[in-house]
Each structure stands twice: as C-alpha cells, then as structure tokens.
Write a structure and sequence with these properties.
Helix content is 23%, strand content 29%. The protein contains 2 helices and 5 strands; from the N terminus they run βαβαβββ.
Length: 84
C-alpha cells in the first residue's frame, strides 16, 4: 500500500534557517509524525542537531515528537535559545 503524501508548511529559525537556507518552505512528505518529518528534512538539508535539541510545534501548539501530522499543517522546530 502506498502512503499518501502530505503538504506541510515548515518554518525554520536560528540554526535550521541557516542550514536549510530558507525561513519557510512547503514540503510534500509521506511522513506521518513530526519525528519522521524532521528525519526526512535532516537528510534533505543536512541538519547537524539531533531532535533532542528541539521542541516541536504543530499548528501553534507544542507537541511531542510522535504527534501525527496532517495535510495542511504548519510545523515549527524550535531550536535551543542562547543567552539568558
């Protein structure tokens, strides 16, 4: 059975914006969770940090990495914040 593709908007900040070369992009992905999406994007863009360094936000709500993603979602991977 072929998995369906989801169209997801991903917003990047800090290190991920630098590594992806953009602040936002729309991606078509077969990923079904935030973790699968991040792994897909890590391979695509060569992200250097592991998921344990980020929090994930789906449609403006903090979620865990196993949170399912759906067509039309907006996802932000929130990087570590420096300073104090």
């Amino acid at each position: 059975m072929m998995s369906e593709s989801r169209r997801i908007t991903v917003q990047y900040f800090a290190v991920l914006r630098e590594e992806s070369g953009c602040s936002e992009e729309e991606v078509n992905t077969p990923a079904t969770s935030a973790l699968e999406l991040f792994e897909d994007l890590r391979q695509r863009h060569g992200f250097s940090l592991e998921t344990d360094r980020f929090k994930v936000v789906v449609n403006e709500e903090f979620c865990d990495w196993s949170h399912p993603i759906n067509d039309g979602d907006t996802i932000v991977f929130v990087p570590p914040v420096a300073g104090g």
